[in-house]
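Structure in, sequence out. Go:
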């Protein structure tokens, strides 16, 4: 048996891949017929991938810089804090964070516990993907439920046509931070998403009440992050702050990252409300003039069903999604119904402890 070795340089950490050759006499893997076929197929795949990148104008160097920055931030978190969680919603940004964390600390286990705040109104596809990914990565998963906060009287559930549990997540999250003595919660927020998030630093300080003060943030000159805090305070950290939506999708394509089917075109019952298409669910109330119909849609961003807008789309693969996003004039959160409550809806929620 002859063992051939080659180095994979797709990530900063070198992986050693071994291939076996059982042909005799054989001096290397390149002489084995099946391996020659696989190598030829890989060459064709690489050619098609490179041609596709040129068509979609994907800049690998730019993505590597963003990846290195995010990995650096994650390693800073691991070095400065003790009790760490990664806020995992099952959306594309938090999925990318998990993959980045694996790269940052490979071959060791991810040093962050995954935490999900379940509103009880989440997409079933998201919950299944959450559980499967945690199992695949061997990561610990903590789930806290908004319904428990409602039952305990910690939060009052909204009533009416536009009722949503999205804002109530803040109370459930802060209770979990206090109960588990969490020092830092890593999130997938990006500055291009919304003007309130554009104000936020990589290391975002929260006071003893879990509140954020946008006018009192710490400088981060030369990528020096100050994680010092008093008892009862904590930090939110956003490693992909400088990424755009297009960067995220191009990175997902480059790294072959799996996503929930919600992000691809699928058939779903929806209805239109105030210019936004919302997915229909049994617990949602309809106005007299609203009608439910079924069509092809996909999600650009995923959250609570009651506030997650869907997009009419035929994009059923990553290449089509990237082309669609590059051409659109509607922002990623333009379909989020919770952001339409007021001009400062996101900032108001973040000041109260929201993600």
């Amino acid at each position: 048996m002859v063992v051939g070795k080659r180095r994979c340089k797709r990530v900063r950490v070198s992986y050693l891949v071994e291939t076996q050759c059982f042909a005799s006499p054989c001096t290397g893997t390149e002489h084995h017929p099946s391996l020659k076929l696989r190598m030829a197929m890989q060459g064709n795949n690489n050619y098609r991938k490179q041609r596709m990148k040129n068509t979609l104008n994907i800049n690998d160097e730019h993505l590597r810089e963003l990846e290195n920055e995010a990995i650096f931030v994650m390693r800073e978190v691991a070095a400065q804090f003790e009790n760490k969680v990664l806020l995992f919603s099952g959306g594309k940004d938090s999925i990318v964070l998990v993959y980045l964390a694996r790269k940052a600390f490979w071959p060791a286990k991810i040093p962050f516990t995954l935490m999900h705040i379940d509103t009880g109104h989440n997409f079933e596809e998201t919950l299944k993907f959450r559980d499967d990914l945690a199992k695949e990565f061997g990561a610990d998963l903590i789930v806290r439920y908004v319904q428990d906060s409602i039952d305990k009287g910690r939060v009052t559930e909204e009533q009416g046509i536009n009722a949503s549990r999205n804002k109530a997540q803040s109370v459930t999250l802060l209770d979990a931070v206090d109960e588990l003595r969490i020092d830092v919660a890593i999130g997938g927020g990006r500055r291009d998403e919304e003007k309130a998030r554009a104000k936020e630093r990589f290391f975002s300080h929260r006071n003893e009440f879990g509140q954020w003060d946008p006018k009192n943030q710490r400088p981060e000159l030369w990528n020096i992050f100050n994680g010092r805090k008093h008892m009862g305070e904590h930090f939110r950290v956003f490693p992909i702050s400088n990424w755009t939506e297009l960067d995220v999708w191009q990175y997902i394509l480059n790294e072959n990252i799996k996503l929930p089917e919600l992000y691809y075109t699928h058939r779903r019952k929806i209805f239109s409300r105030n210019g936004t298409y919302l997915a229909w669910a049994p617990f949602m109330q309809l106005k007299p003039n609203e009608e439910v119909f079924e069509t092809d849609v996909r999600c650009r961003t995923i959250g609570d069903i009651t506030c997650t807008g869907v997009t009419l789309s035929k994009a059923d693969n990553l290449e089509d999604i990237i082309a669609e996003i590059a051409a659109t004039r509607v922002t990623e959160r333009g379909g989020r119904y919770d952001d339409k409550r007021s001009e400062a809806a996101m900032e108001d929620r973040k000041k109260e402890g929201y993600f």
